[in-house]
Queue: 4 jobs
Job 1
Amino acid sequence: MPSETGATSGDAAVSAARLARPSAGWALLTSELSVLFRRRRTIAMLLALAAIPVLIAVAVKLSSSPPGPGEGPPFLDRITQNGLFVGVTALVVSIPLFLPLTIGVAAGDTIAGEAGLGTLRYLLLAPAGRVRLLLVKYAGAAAFCLAATSSVVVAGAAIGVALFPVGPVPLLSGDTITVGESVVRSLLVAGYVTISMLGLSAVGLFISTLTEVPVGAMAATIVLSVVSQVLDSLNQLAWLHPWLFSHYWLDFTDLLREPILWTSFADNALLQAGYIAFFGALAYGRFVTKDVLS
Amino acid sequence: MTELAIETRGLTKRFGRQAAVDGIDLAVPRGAVYGFLGPNGSGKTTTIRVMLGLAAATSGEVSILGEEMPRHLRDVLPRVGALVEGPAFYPYLSGAANLHRLDTADRHAPSSTRSTRVARALERVGLSHAAGKRVRAYSLGMKQRLGIANALLSPRELLVLDEPTNGLDPQGTREVRALVRSLAAEGTTVFVSSHLLAEVEQMCTHAGVMSAGSLVAQGGLDDLRRVGRAYVRLRTPDADAARAVLASLRLDLDDAVGAQAEPAEHRQSTAQGADAGEEVVSAVLPLGSPAPEAIVAALVRAEVRVRGFAVEGASLEERFVALTGEGFDIAQ
């Protein structure tokens, strides 16, 4: 009771007064984002992702014979005609492994990283609030998904514009769109891929509440992303495919048709939302009752 | 009625079948500096974790600053500063950035004063010069200081410091003691756990002693000392006659204890043989036994040559060892 504590000392009165008006608590989110994105590891991962489109573009530029139609990863053959395809090609290349790898690191580190350092107990003693901390941590992981995807797309656009001709973009459906619209489509694709990774992030968050060893949580998350893709490639398990979080990962190409096929976007968003709800609930159930002994 | 800053009733924490904390009833009065003593592995840190809501109690109740925990954790913890099981920080952030980060977690800590409060906390523990250095480069003692600074980021009504002088040099230890005293003078209740008795004796007003998960003694430091038995120590060449007199006065002759606590300078003199034939007779002075001068008078009447006579209270250390047992075995 603040009224009782006020009598003990001047300091006590001050702290009792402080209790009356807690702030909304956005400072923790700001702090989480700044700690995450100023960390050398995060920056290194984003730079590595940005290097993928650069490598692709430089390799294509330097090779004497441009890739023929249908050679290499999808869209590779179009890069020489239009630099705006570099980002898309790089996404196709990074989605199966590189992107989930970095996202597994970011998501697996969320709670386990704090537990491993021991800072988890001090955050909880502050008190951050367990639910609030979980939400902030997930928001940080989601922000990393966006940053990771964006760094591939933006670096791809930049290197594409620098090395190749830029003009109206032919779409998969055969229609052609202006450069301006192609930028909009690139942003849509970045959004699609970001959303695609949110389910994996939720899985990572949950695994992260299970352990005090961040590397374990990271590895488990990455392994699950590979397992999901392997299962998705087995025709015998067709019934399972629509439930796998990686099922729609490469369907962002539907955004490159005219008119846009929104069904895969909607299906993907729904699936990812389901993963977020399910694994978010598991993480909540685990973390709220967890004994923090690290 | 004294208000209690910390109160636990039958607090128990089991890990599997083993009870790390077994039904303890802590009572820490407001304004006290409470030393929470016990050997390694006696359940001190587990008690603190449960008390502050980091771990759930298996059974029993905790109330802190008059509020039930962990139900009112959100209202209580902002008023409590804590250092639990050593400091922990982000090694890739500077000392000041670490404090900033942890302070943002407290919704009651105003962001407008954050930088000032961080700077003041760093100054208070003597870390201002290292504020911009990455914690990776800190020594153990510096981390320990930073941990204490974290507990002092906001004005607190209660400070819980788990082994605050771990890793500190003698100078740092003295500074921590002075800090604790000055905080107590400001009216903050301080709960400090330690396995070092001397530390507790020097800065605490109250103490509780843990042994193998149980609270075996608790109270004001003076009361705890008083509970300890007093001894009579007598130097005489007529040991047998002296023993007979002491026994007739209903003192417990207890040579083992006497030998153990024998003053060093005396042991030396017997070893030199300067007082050949002289012996030290000790006996426990039970409650209600005659006054010391009456004992001496009785000895002299019986023609015992009294060359030295002293009544010594049991030191807190003897009491501590008696309660927790001696040796290096970690309690199971």
Job 2
Amino acid sequence: MTAYTATVTVRLKRGVLDPEAETTQQALERLGFELSDLRSADRFEVDLDAADADEAADRADEMAERLLANPTIHDYEVAVAER
Amino acid sequence: MVGVTVAVVQFGGSNCDRDAVRALDHLGVDAERVWHEDGLPADIEGIVLPGGFSYGDYLRAGAMAARAPIMAEVRAAAEEGVPVIGVCNGAQIGSESGLTPGAFTTNASARFQCEPVHLRVERADTPWTAAYDEGDVIEVPIAHGEGRFEISEAAHADLVADDRVLFRYCDADGNVTDAANPNGSTDNVAGVLGERETVAVLMPHPERATLPDLGRSTDGAGILDAFA
């Protein structure tokens, strides 16, 4: 078994309104920053032991499918690195 | 009706469970609060997933409660035809657990909104709406920060084709308009049916519009009358 960190990034699908990101963008603009867009995402770092990187990725993928993301509104990606 | 026992499932952070029991009591329905860890009683004839802030809305509103073991029992009961309604946080839990399609997420305003709204009854042939006629306009309050109904275009087309939209936000005259949409919900959807008509979720609070001494409307009583 090898120790891995699986990083799961969950973000809203393109086209799904993100009022929190819009509000954050407005706050940045109020502070004088110039920006054309802002998107937010949630990142989960999952430490786990697995036989290989593929198994670690599969397990993180299932975590995203079953809890971390809501497939109706979210896309997600998984990246695995040895810890 | 005597003998009907409705379970109002209480999670950590539920806060409309007592309101639901009181409203049901008022309608003559025997209702009891059931702590989620205790599981569903064997003989229940209805289930309410009440409003509140279960698990502090961690991750997403309803996400944690939807994965609590009792929800497997709720889904099994729903499949057997036991009437199940999710209100507000209960609607979020219901959609997160797959009882109903779509998702409820952050209001377009990015604000928590607590206000009376009008709903158009889109189906009058369900247990939840037997007290109304199709097209009736009822006034029921909302109180949510994550009530914007989101659904994929394909799933929305199916929802409409299957006639599973139960309530839409509308103005006082029943017109479904952007101005009458409090939270940016797709197609002004305020409540939907599950695969069975005996399963429904809605963001507005019928239990807050049932008791005559509470608030300005008793229009929500007809929804809870499904259990009577």
Job 3
Amino acid sequence: MSDTEILAPPTVSGGMIGESVARPDARTKCRGEAVYVGDLELPGMLHAKVLRSPVGHAHVERIDLTAAARTPGLVRLVTAADLPSANTRYGHILRDQPILADDVVRFVGEPVVIAVAGDEAAATEALDLVDVSYDPLPTVDLDTALSPDAPLVHPEPVEPSFLRSPLVDALVQGNVCYKYTHRRGEPDAALAAAAHVVEHDYTFPSAYQYAMEPHSAIAHRQGTSLSVWSSCQHPFLVRQELAQLFGLDLDDVRMQVLFVGGGYGSKSYTTIEPMACLAAWCVNAPVRLVNTVEESILTTRQHNMRARVLTAAGSDGRVLLRRAEILMDTGAYGTNGPTVAFMTGVSAPGPYDWQAVDVVARCVYTNRCPAGSYRGFGSSHTQWIGESQLDEIAQLAGLDRFELRRRNLLPRGGLIHSDMKPLDADLRPSLDRLENALAERPSPAPGRRIGTGIGFGVVPAGAEPIANAVARLRRDGRARVIVGTTEIGQGARTVFAQIAAHVLGVPLSAVTVPGADTSVTPYDRSTGASRSTTMVGLAVERACRDIVGQLAATAAHALGVSAEHVVYEQACFSAADGTMLPLHDVLATLGMAGDELVGRGRVGGGADPTDSPVFWEVCGSAAVVEVDERTGGVSVQHTLGLPDVGTAIHPQLVAVQDSGCTVQALGQTLLEQLVFGPDGALLTPSLVQYRVPLAGDIPVDMDCELVENGDGPGPFGAKGCGEGPFGAIPAALVTALQDVGVQVRDLPVTPERVWQSLHDEGGHGDS
Amino acid sequence: MPVDGPQVTDSPDRTDPVPVSTTVNGRPVTVCTSAATLLVDFLRDELGLRGTKRSCDVQMCGTCTVLVDGRPVSSCCHLAVDVDRRDVRTIEGLADPADTGNSIYQLFEDAFVHHAAVQCGFCTPGFLVTLTSLVRDGTLHAGSRSGQICAALRGNICRCTGYEPILHAVESVLATLPTPTASGEQGGTA
């Protein structure tokens, strides 16, 4: 590589942060050139399909493979008997889930047999000939699981796993796998002092995240090591589980993640990788396992919930007590359920200044398919209930709903949970902004009603204050950022490239960010909890500053000053006396044939904060809805989102996170619901029955105004986004419906429920 | 144990080979394929055209949209044998820069990039195939209103963007097209 190939430094540096650059991956994705796991073709690759239980709870008496084994094209049938190690269970909090059912199936859809064949059709054909005898056991659901004589989903002891934490202390007792309790203040005294009390029962449905790329994995065994390509969000945590299941060292499991076709939590933690690996362990070839969407629904879904919630307030509208008794249905296996229940408990009070809080949330095993993470979990489950009760209190107290909130909104530094970092954001200006936005109410057409509502999403974000990054700057000015973050559509690679380009003083086009590969990229806990820009972005900034430091040392030597007196700006090193050295002159001192500088960036340790959460992701939202009195149809006229991102590194990507999250939350509130039969069979198994928002369902007007106070813990004062509206939007829609007299206690708010509520008006009220 | 194609030919119900002669992205293709092969699998697995994605399998999501004789179809619900003697165009064909007939596609690609209408990207090729054909056949034009655009896109699901950036991208492209004549689709103030 000759000096003439050195890239010109950018004419303007110091830009980039706050610039909405074009995503480097956008054109590739448009043209269908972006490679997802399901697009990979490895030499000799075989295909796997999974036989799933048709019953909700049963002893597996016998598996007869005789007829199936004769299927042309079949390579191997795999059952629980083929497990290579004594570690037969996985799960990051509770080790309760088998790769394949051994003696018991616990939900309709539980994997029982894997067929590996030359193509998927042959594998499917073989599975049709597998004969499994089931001896049915009684099933439980959320209504029956806690009764004293309820059959146990897991009568055998369940071991804790590697992510059980003091904060989320999961312990199986009966059918409860985790119990969250938070009491502070004096709940009974607060209730006794109340002038106004509202208490109701609520239900929250299970939704399906529907990442459009179904769960996909390819596994290849080479001796005693495994290479895995997976559409997963958290490759390092999946690696941990696979190593444990197969009795391997962490470095003997290599996880690679290409582009991921959406996640929203559905690809967090371990899903189908153990099955792909078990199949590959049994045959001497790469094995590809790609779910259908119907199988992906059975793989993970959102927790449905039942809750009894109480709000007590004084005659002045000051909030005294929030009490909540919450049951979360995690299905047959815990997966991330304990964390989801914890977050739900934490979110139940909302961002208000309670005199007392009394919240219990139980995570309950049932005979349904397992539930896990879904965007903004916890806040999505409870914020709509909390805001709805505040509006009821406002009405009882004869106060304006904004005035009531103004009297109670937590200030910066206010306490949300006794054991967690205080609120690190200012909500008051957002409340004022929402009030202004809703000041003028459009007048409805005859037979229509127009209501307005507001909500706040307050999500404990960041997961863990640890991240690593490596940056490499080559002699020719090209840079690579090596991180374990996965690109699930959120634009992480774009934002990291911006940070690197900004700090290094090179053009954005000179920076590439490849995918995660646990054998190459440094450890990253997970891609979720809105943590990537904040935590990994900070590590990227530090890695690039490390390189600039190394360059500065060389520049200082050339300029004849000490390194601490060298300033790096506009891709130029300068000394106090005005002498300057451009970046490419310093890079020219590196070795000729592609030499590079390597920078390390670490977050965690030293003076880095260890608080939990890393930050509170907050978002205020307003909604204007129109209700058709005749049909109960709801049309969302306007939404306004105020996501607080500290500093927007890429304002356009933040805005489209807000619009995407808003519409997904709209689906959650108005449309989406997985329906189960009495034995736990899914009655809404495909996109035909499970209705997600289409282009025609979105709000007529959608606005997003970023809140930027430069106060985030991430790079340049940034903090994460894209989950807050999942708390705020359902709350805004529900309070908007309540504003026109529609009583909402159960989601989704279907036209039937709206119509029913309107026709119950003037009747019995709380039925 | 053999692992590839030939050993499965003795299962007559699904593997009876049927000859298919078609044109895919302008290239003549003559092959024998199973009568049960879906068009999406034929394109992805037999022709290696993996820009066409597979998601819902029930003709709801639009990720697998391809053009058959210029009309958008869900290749997950179309048999490969049904494109015999037809013209098939996939995202690879529409996005081929060597093909000068792809100016409409290019407008949409530019607009999707500019409006951040691409996130995870799994649905994006399907949207672009649909949109290109809807403009080519006159369904969408300079006078199309947002309700018409939404209706035209009801067969394409996106879970990331909330559609808003996609609609902005579409509107920006349609605004650059010539206004239809009075004899064509009505535009403007209908």
Job 4
Amino acid sequence: MLFLLDFSTFLISGFLITVEVTLLGVGIGLILGILAALGDIYGGRIIRTIVNLYVEFFRGSPLIVQLFLFYFTIPMLTGLSMDVMMTAILTLSLNSGAYQKGYLKGAMEAVFKDQLMAAISLGLPMWKIFLYVVVPQALRIVIPAWSNELASMGKSTTALIVIGVREFLNTGISITSQTFRPLETFAFITIIYFIWIYSMLKALDMLYDKIKIPGLEPVI
Amino acid sequence: MTPIEQIIFLLKAVPVTLAISLLSFLFGLGLGILLAFMRIFESAPLRYLSDSYEKFFRSVPVLAVMLLLYFGVGPFIPIFKDPFFTSVFSLGIVSGANQSQIFRSAIGSVGRTQMLAAISIGLTRFKALRYVILPQALFLAVPGLGSEIALLIKDSAYSFIIGVIELMKHTDILRASQRSLILPYVSSAIIYVVMTFPVATFLDKWGSRKKKELGL
């Protein structure tokens, strides 16, 4: 496997792109997920329908289809020229937001029932209830489900090779086409993926143990 | 091709997509049950093996496994030169890890107390599993298995990359030949939603109804 050392900078840059799109996708997806969950719980019928259509579309279709769709149609419909990284991050965030909406909704409803009454009786306005009562606790409850989402996003970024993002798996394909040693290259890449995703999961597990709310363990 | 013909062309590829997903689901089901059993029985090496398998394959991208098997192992073991087999195999071994976890948590939520009760009335450990725990656990696993099927239908799109002619490939052919971009992708996305949504929701509803009936 020593020949891979010749490609170390190449591999590292690919790995950093993978990390970048994973974290940005999940981060922006978190914001979208919170908004979608709030819309689904407190919104009227129209907002709820829009949120559900959004969620069903992004959860029901493969990421590859979504990537192609955005990659080809956004420039055509809007005339904007998007580079692949922008398309990638946009698609991943929308995709991740749809998944996170489900987790966050469950967590918010777990906080919601009796504490909402208490908060209203204290005279807090609605937006303060979300900001100071519901969301902070929901974020703590949701961590175990959310760490699954982070792991699955980390794995899904491999789909980005279809639109030509130079992420980690794609560097492996380039190396293979130069060295003709696919076995070692892909085995190495698979193992690095395992190390990175597994350590993310472990880190979030530890975080959860630190900040979990006793008595409010998740249902998921 | 008219839009209708394009959609019919896409629908022609649906059986292949469904075949990949179902075959890999069944493969993963067998593997998952086996792995879950290895965790329950009190043998440290088996438990350790099953645990590491689960941890490894839950943290590894399916596409990386697929490329590794197809390009890396294919030249040495001829069966992996077949893209259809390779995609079913890779989706299956990854799904096995997921399904093992689904079964474990289902068995866990039937509860330790029932196991103890069964042993105390004189059943052996195996018989307690077979007649008391598993019949209930299988129902509890149904919603999880539903979303696993949905996940496999979506992940089967990856096999287009190693050259299986399935729905995603047909979409790509349309894109290349018809110079219309929106229709192929929107309609194939809708076809995927139509395949995944009913399975997941139906099995989820059925599972929670059964759960209520069983009083768990």
